[in-house]
Amino acid sequence: MADGEQVARLRQGVAAWNQWRQANPGMSPDLSGITLEGSNFSGVDFGHTNLSGANLGFMYLIGANLESANLTRATLTDATLVDANLKGANISQSKFSACTIIGANLNGANLSGITSWRAAQFGVTYWDEETIWPDGYTPASPQRQP
Length: 146
Description:
This protein is low in regular secondary structure. The protein has one domain (1-146): Pectate Lyase C-like (3 Solenoid), CATH 2.160.20. Helix content is 12%, strand content 5%. The protein contains 2 helices and 3 strands, in the order H-H-E-E-E. The chain has helices at 4-10, 14-23, and strands at 80-82, 100-102, 121-122. A 3-stranded parallel beta sheet has the order 1-2-3, with no helix packed on it. The mean pLDDT is 90.
């Protein structure tokens, strides 16, 4: 369950959250199960954050850092992840219906078991040999970041 103090900090806005994250670099926040549906968290630093079971539907996560985040069983329905860093993120078993992912870094990300991924809109994304794709999907070859 999400940490109440961390949720309160997040509710202060992206700038306050990111400032707190910079002041606490070793912290792995717990926002599991949180509902942020419909919010604009562009530029947020959710790196190494537990967002398992979170409702992130209809969110804007443009330029967001989600490196090594735990997004297991999260809802990303209609979320927009443009130029987001999802390197090493665990996105397994998440709901991806109508999610838009463009210019995202998926190097080493785990996308196994995501639901409705065929309805997601993948623009140019970057991945490597360590990226785990949903069953039935194999990209032609790794697309490396420039």
